[in-house]
Amino acid sequence: MVCEAMAVFADKVRGTVRWMACPVVAALIAIAFAPTAAAAPAARIVTETPGPGRILEIGVYSPSMDRVIPLQVLRAADTSTPAPTLYLLNGAGGGEDAATWLKQTDASDFFTGKHVNVVVPMEGAFSYYTDWERPDEGLAKKLNNNGRNMWATFLTEELPPVIDAALHTTGANALAGISMAGTSVLDLAIRAPRLYRSVAAYSGCAMTSDPLGQSFVSLVVGLGKGDPRNMWGPTGGPGWREHDPYLHADRLPDIPMYISSGSGLPGRHDTLGDPGVGDDGRVLANQVVLGGGIESAANYCTARLAERTRQLGRTDITYNFHPAGTHSWGYWQDDLHKSWPMMAAAIAVG
Q: How far lies 47's CA from each of 50, 63, 68, in Å?
């Protein structure tokens, strides 16, 4: 009040200031002159390089991981009008090796002429595209980064607004992933049930907390010299159960989904001359033996998930169990083609 301000002024003339005489004024002044915390840096595009054809290579700064994440973007057929977005996740290599969607499949040609933006993160190896409980020194050394893995935060919170603004999208999203990411996309859909209108999972293992699932996850993370305990805590603990889509199948969003796997037996892409094999007998042997074993395990997980979701009365999930097929790109390309009409309808691709 005016009288209190006058009292403060009078005391100041006498060489003292009785702040407590005007507690409200004192509080307001304290707030006004208190130092303000620096605003946290926002997710943003920091690099942009045109690639071949319709490919745009961008780098997006992730505040949660404090580094720039590279991505490849296939622009929609007509960039003058808004288009929906398909987020396409690579497998265990995360796009940091040659095993990527744009190098191993016909994705670039397949999406030519389609009115959809396809966004492919080119990092995230051995991470399960999840938020880790703590940084991992092994992955940091292996992948030459800071060891911070906050992929769920990046993919569901930081990246979509950046992509929507930069590409002028419709805001409609679909999500698909293979192998390691075939597990991740289901977990991400549970985490962000309103972000995606359709999800496709190829050759993933939805069971992460039972002994088979734990072995599967530990093997993948170990390939990157990572410690899975840094990811979800003690093996078999609550963190592992929290990220188990099988256990939380009742939380899968009510959206069209496509989930596939092969039996592990050799199929039509397991032959010399196939684009993924070439004429290399060693590649073929590895694909049949190792790829067959991995796919057989993924098939078991997928069958269990199918049983669980049918018990829950889900009729909007399409399961495709291939009678033959290994853990390899030829089958994932086939599944992308087969699942695309479902995803395109869900995100309203014109």
A: 10, 15, 9
Q: For the chain, percent helix, then strand, then coil, each to nearest 5?
A: 40, 15, 40
Residue among 251, 263, 116 nearest 203 (CA) = 263
291 Cβ contact list (under 8 Å, min separation 6): 264, 270, 326, 327, 328
The fold of 44-346 is Rossmann fold (3.40.50)
Per-residue pLDDT, 38? 54
Measured from the Cβ of residue 228, the count of other Cβ atoms closer than 10 Å reads 23
Please determine, for residue 106, whether its predicted confidence score (pLDDT) is greater than 80: yes
Q: Where are the domains of the chain?
A: 2-33, 44-346
Strands lying side by side in the sheet with 55-62 = 44-50, 55-62, 67-74, 117-121, 85-89, 173-178, 198-202, 257-262, 317-322
CA atoms within 13 A of residue 300's CA, in its CB half-sphere: 12
- Predicted TM-score (pTM) of this structure: 0.88
The model's pLDDT over 77-98, given as tens digits with 9 standing for 90+, comes to 999 999 999 999 999 999 999 9
CA angle 26, 32, 34 (to 5 degrees): 95
Give CA–CA dist 66/201, Å, rounded.
Answer: 29
Name the band, by pLDDT with cuts 50, 70 and 90, for residue 24.
Answer: very low
CA distance linking residue 194 with residue 21, whole number of Å: 53
What is the enclosing helix (H) or strand (E) of 117?
strand 117-121
pLDDT tens, residue by residue, 125-165: 999 999 999 999 999 999 999 999 999 999 999 999 999 99
Position 135, amino acid: P
